[in-house]
Amino acid sequence: MTADTLNPRLQEIVEDFNAVSGRDRLQLLLEYSQELPALPGRYAEDPGLLEPVPECQSPLFLAVEVDPDATVHLFFQAPAEAPTTRGFASILYAGLDGLDADEVLATPAEFSGQLGLADLVSPLRLRGMAAMLARIKRQVRDKRG
Amino acid sequence: MALPYDSAAKFQEYTHPEMIVSTEWVAAHLDDPGLVVAESDEDVLLYETGHVPGSVKLDWHTELNDPVTRDYVDGAGFARLMSEKGIGRDTTLVLYGDKNNWWAAYALWVCSLFGHPDVRLMDGGRAKWIAEGRPLTTDVPERPQADYPVIERDDKQIRAFQDQVLAHLGQPLVDVRSPGEYTGELLHMPDYPQEGALRGGHIPGAKSIPWARAAAEDATFRTRAELAAIYHDGAGLGPDDDIVVYCRIGERSSHTWFVLHHLLGYPHVRNYDGSWTEWGNSVRVPITRGDSP
Prior knowledge:
Largest sheet of chain B: 5 strands, parallel
Strand content of chain A: 5-15%
Order of helices and strands of chain A: HHHEEEHHHH
Radius of gyration of chain A: 14 Å
Distance between the termini of chain B: 46 Å
Structural class of chain A: mainly alpha
Largest interface: A-B, 29 and 17 residues
Structural class of chain B: alpha/beta
Radius of gyration of chain B: 18 Å
Oligomer: heterodimer
């Protein structure tokens, strides 16, 4: 298992999901989907700055900023009719936004598999979350100083 | 005890008006005993954000598919699923969902494999219900467990397998995917995940009729005259044809199957659910690339 290499925030999210079962786990994902922050104006007005994630079942766009001190900021856009995709984005936001670039890059690629959602959501749908993480990491690598 | 049919004039033009109801009809019958409304969506959480009051959720991926084999649930699995949802063999089951009822039509096709006697689609689906300002709730109904009998799945009438499609070559085939998938330029839907087809193109002889052409702007089915213009006048399909429809995994083509079989009333229409994710990965099956059948 790679659980021990998760950062403390992601570790807590994984534990929260695994502490509940079935319907409550989906409910938790729904709550995350509702907490996804709206895009700041500079992205909302210029969607060309966002990277599409076609691996998600529904349209999702993301942007990554890396400060000179290597702090990572994440931005996502997904329609309200795609709560599962929004939920995945929101988990990554809650677990990674504001962390150091090295901490983001250390996130195991198969992290989404630890949430216990495969049977509830289907592995196919979960693939979108792994793709988001891969694209976030690539942008972090490209943008860090 | 089947509920009354929807007598809306538009539906009477279809060959099987008993297969479809309007949002008005659903709103008027929501509390009737003998009716279960079920939502079936692409997004597995959409039901949880709010649904038609009293409706249950039916997920294509986690509930209608067998968890191990690439197949649908068997008779015992279907009976268990229906019973848990409070659906009996004599229940009038009305399905609706997102994206022009794409996934609801898929669920209806699976229910038809088990010959559920009274299953209908709500025309316009989730989008129309919401556009009309009708109520949504996040309350999940507690329906009493029903006692659904174990019915053997009948794969002969409305389902086609790869060997049957190979034997069918030269007879009418309809590819309902996007133009890019049909020509072979794309291996998956635009903006959708790559689901693992090694080759692009279409089954030789298949005509390209993207599924969503059967839906109007408000997600309802087009009128019979409009549908006949697309499938009969445009594509040359008729009631005497033996037709196989397919897409990527058989979901979009369920929508077209519903249109051809129930709305236009063509008696011999089968859905090839193996579709492109099987055909495009199979060794030595013929494939045509480009925009001609």
